[in-house]
Design brief:
Layout: H1 3-46, E1 53-54, E2 61-66, E3 79-88, E4 94-97, E5 104-106, H2 112-117, E6 126-131, E7 153-163
Antiparallel strand pairs: 1-2, 2-6, 3-4, 3-5, 3-7, 6-7
């Protein structure tokens, strides 16, 4: 078989495999989204004192505990300095927590749930985010921090600084 035919064969095989994996992945993604959304809805119904609002149609819920002050605009290149506690919604297990050190992140580099939630507050504000797995780490387990695949996360984040 000549080199050009071999390259075409590999490309076709790759495209076919990608199509199959995308179709199965999409169905699995949608099924997991339904599961996550039901778990969060149940959690909120069992905790009626939480006045959670939904970020558009994403499935991300937030509770502004302190709005903070200012009128900063957020972009993907905005740097945020935060303190946070992250736990798994189903069992309350804390998997990440800042202590006296408050890290800074470029908004573009954080998980999607943070990108959607952090702009709901200003400097000095605190927000609680309930994140479906698709807005956190999805189907990829994070063993280094003790997260299983498809973990629904509960973050409390304090925004200490914003730099544009």
């Amino acid at each position: 078989m000549n080199r050009a035919a071999l390259i075409i064969l590999f490309l076709c095989a790759g495209l076919s495999a990608c199509k199959k994996s995308t179709e199965g992945g999409t169905a699995g993604y949608k099924a997991q989204a339904r599961v996550d959304d039901a778990i969060i809805a149940k959690y909120l119904s069992e905790n009626p004192t939480l006045e959670a609002k939904k970020v558009d149609t994403s499935g991300v819920y937030y509770i502004v505990e302190q709005p903070g002050t200012g009128s900063d605009l957020f972009t993907n290149s905005t740097s945020v300095t935060v303190g946070y506690t992250g736990s798994i919604l189903s069992n309350g297990k804390v998997f990440a927590q800042t202590q006296s050190f408050h890290p800074s992140y470029i908004l573009q580099s954080v998980i999607l749930g943070w990108k959607l939630g952090i702009p709901k507050i200003q400097k000095g504000g605190t927000i609680r985010l309930l994140l479906p797995s698709r807005y956190a780490y999805g189907p990829a387990p994070q063993p280094q921090i003790g997260l299983p695949a498809n973990a629904i996360l509960d973050f409390t984040i304090t925004l200490y600084d914003i730099v544009n």
